[in-house]
Write a structure and sequence with these properties.
This protein has nine helices and nine strands. With 294 residues, the chain is of the alpha/beta class. The radius of gyration is 20 Å and the shape is globular. The structure holds nicotinamide-adenine-dinucleotide.
């Protein structure tokens, strides 16, 4: 089939047009809520040497033009990486120039991290990331928050029993879900830092028009399967967390929002309906499939 064009400009080779259309395929999806299109191409990943970042640049490298940033050495030679400490603005600011979106994963990811580490690596670093984005004109930030920003909810009934595998009298289909509207209730210094990151994101969204998606990630681990009873509720597989990050990068419109990063686990207690609704999140995994291997 030939494509007809009403134009006086020089002829555009048909092959080039077909290639362009092919490139657009899959980048435009519609649903009743929103038009999904992806203007995002150049994506800076902070903490690019880490677990989630490594999976991201490995598996979504054909979809985005990634650059990396980490305090440690780069682990993907094909991804141009700025080595530096995010708590030192002068040392990392340039990495944000010419970037469309940032996936901010760089942090001390240990939920028991001491204040001496949380302060520079999570609080100051995160403020610097948002400020560098504002300064450089970055459009969007996907911020790796954590379930620990609201971790105290988990100690309430019935979650306190589910997390230790006591399901007596409970129907997994009728467990009230902890959703994105619940009160902030951090369960430690790390959780406080993640709540700070969400608050910082809200500030930059409202005051400077930065688009911000916060992902309250559950449990993502190297083995890519639940390793203890609690993780039967909290696990998020690599492909599910990557899908969430991708959707957060691509969804339109976005101003500020919060989603939980958890797979479709039988005993999950964090809401994924909001992510299904807004992001069209379609989780592929369920921790229950691994129960026998615990
Ligand atoms: N893995 C999970 O289960 C989980 C759950 C909730 C939230 N998160 C959050 O997601 C993000 C990524 O998690 P992960 O498991 O891949 O962590 P990770 O520890 O594997 O990676 C974090 C990376 O950040 C880098 N980093 C730390 N401080 C830095 C600094 N000051 N400047 C630059 N880089 C710095 C580290 O060198 C590391 O490569 C973290 O922010 C973490 O808090 C992870």
């Amino acid at each position: 089939m030939r494509l007809g064009f009403c134009s006086t400009s020089p002829a555009v080779p048909e092959a080039a047009i077909l290639a362009l259309l092919d490139g657009l395929k899959g980048r435009y999806e519609s649903n009743s809520k929103a038009l999904y299109m992806s203007p995002v191409r150049k994506v800076l990943v902070t903490g690019s040497g880490g677990l989630i970042a490594s999976a991201l640049v490995r598996d979504l490298g054909d979809r985005f033009d990634f650059t990396g940033q980490d305090i440690g050495p780069p682990n993907y030679p094909t991804v141009p990486t700025t080595v530096g400490d995010l708590s030192d603005m002068d040392g990392v600011r340039q990495a944000f120039d010419g970037i469309d979106a940032v996936v901010h994963l760089g942090a001390d990811s240990n939920q028991h991290a001491p204040w001496a580490s949380v302060l520079p690596n999570n609080l100051i670093a995160t403020r610097n990331v948002f400020e560098a984005c504002r300064d450089a004109g970055v459009k969007r930030v996907v911020y790796a928050s954590s379930n620990h920003a609201v971790g105290m909810h988990e100690l309430d009934e019935p979650y306190s029993r589910i997390r230790v595998g006591n399901y007596e009298g409970l129907d997994p289909d009728n467990v009230p879900q902890i959703d994105h509207t619940v009160q902030i209730r951090p369960d430690g210094q790390y959780g406080i830092s993640k709540a700070f990151g969400e608050a910082t994101g809200a500030y930059y969204a409202e005051n400077f028009g930065l688009e911000v998606a916060c992902l309250r990630i559950g449990t993502v681990n190297r083995d890519n399967r639940p390793m203890e009873v609690r993780q039967l509720a909290t696990w998020c597989s690599h492909r599910d967390v990557l899908q969430l990050i991708q959707r957060c990068l691509e969804v339109e419109p976005l101003q500020f929002d919060i989603f939980y990063g958890v797979s479709d686990n039988k005993w999950r207690f964090w809401d994924i309906d909001h992510a299904r609704d807004v992001l069209r999140y379609a989780p592929q995994d369920n921790a229950e499939d691994y129960r026998d291997s615990l």
